[in-house]
Amino acid sequence: EPEVTQTPSHQVTQMGQEVILRCVPISNHLYFYWYRQILGQKVEFLVSFYNNEISEKSEIFDDQFSVERPDGSNFTLKIRSTKLEDSAMYFCASSDLRDNEQFFGPGTRLTVL
Amino acid sequence: AQTVTQSQPEMSVQEAETVTLSCTYDTSESDYYLFWYKQPPSRQMILVIRQEAYKQQNATENRFSVNFQKAAKSFSLKISDSQLGDAAMYFCAYRSARDKVIFGPGTSLSVIP
Q1: Most buried of A32, A70, A73, A96, CB within 10 angstroms?
Q2: How far, in whole angstroms, is CA B49 from its chain's centroid?
Q3: What are B80-110's pLDDT values in tens digits?
Q4: Alpha-carbon separation of residue B1 from A8, B29, B100, B103 (angstroms)
Q5: Among chain B residues, CA nearest to A37
Q6: Considering only CB atoms, which residues of chain B are within 8 Å of chain A?
Q7: How far apart are the C-alpha atoms of B101 and A43, rounded to whole Å?
Q8: Do A56 and B99 touch (CB under 8 A)?
């Protein structure tokens, strides 16, 4: 069964460093999403992406964040200068149609020291 | 803005018994989707069950069923014949046709052998 994959599973970085979280959505999907879950809190929407542009973003998704689909398979989330409060689980999701179910990846645990 | 509320931070159930997790939501839209996701200690998000708002019939998936009360904006999850593997965090989630998923705060379910 096709699935969304994410790498790395765990990333440790120093405050102020740039990180890139990678996702490979399901191959025929067109809509892509990033969510974040701070430990012990609920999952929060960050951004949605379609047709090579952001379709919606939350107030969490400030100028430190960017997304990109650099090729036909990867979908990346970049945090330009990480802060301690960026430590969280980051989930990528994709769907084939906007109204269809979003399939979630296993998540990347980001730890900022 | 849409919100999702789960009033039970923690629940427990005896193995083989039935448990019901509560969820209420607030929306002014008429067309939307509701989900229950399971998050085990691995923190992966696993879709348990999905309900389209336009369907009056309650969704069922094996031991999992929902009680969807559209007028009351209530969407509870019933787990029958609980198993040890059901122990996890359960998130109720809402998605409008405008694509992002909004999660509730979660209910931590323990299963007692």
Answers
A1: A32
A2: 7
A3: 999 999 999 999 999 986 678 999 999 999 9
A4: 34, 10, 12, 13
A5: B43
A6: 33, 35, 37, 42-47, 50, 91, 93, 95, 97-106
A7: 9
A8: yes
